[in-house]
Amino acid sequence: xxxxxxxxxxxxxxxxxxxxxAQIPYGSHMCHFYRDRSDLVxxxxxxxxxxxxxNECCIWITAEPLNAADARxxxxxxxxxxxxxxxxxxxxxRDYSEWYTAAEGLKSNQVAKLWLAEEDSALEQGxxxxxxxxxxxxxxxxxxxxxxxxxxxxxxxxxxxxxxxLCSYDARRCGAADTLQVARRHSCALNQPDEGWQxxxxxxx
Length: 205
Known about the structure:
Layout: E1 13-15, E2 23-25, E3 29-34, H1 37-53, E4 57-62, H2 68-77, H3 82-88, E5 91-95, H4 96-102, H5 108-124, E6 130-135, H6 144-158, E7 163-170, H7 176-184, E8 188-191, E9 198-200
Parallel strand pairs: 3-7, 3-8, 4-5, 4-6, 6-7
Antiparallel strand pairs: 1-2, 8-9
């Protein structure tokens, strides 16, 4: 794994944490497609380890097959003092039902403003930026269109902000059209075909 790089409040790049990807610009709204629990661990644990080492405020919104308790355990296995990070405010791990219940009834632009408020709070507390992930395994065919609207809104909102995000989608539940919809609403997709990670970009409407 590439060495974790320290960022200052004026830096425009931060370390992604995934082998083969290295530095990413703040404002990146990324996605990846996983097949099972081990794929989630392989992506999200190093992503958050890098964020914590980079003095970023980290928020992990979990969903099955990797719930909040499991996320804590996997970070501990990676050497993170999870309890200390949570006490300090550097790390928040919440189940999706808890997070989205709090945001229930809000429009996409209002939810995006909640994330920007989290960024403002993080910077005021002296963090280098905000690092977030969310697993969209809870989506249904009925909720998919609204969530795609939400992804498009936050994609625009995060540009130029001190935020990096990585959205997780279950590859087994996404057809080709779904995958393309997701990719077009993100800065890039992270793919792990072999040992290292690759960045895949999609253009077009």
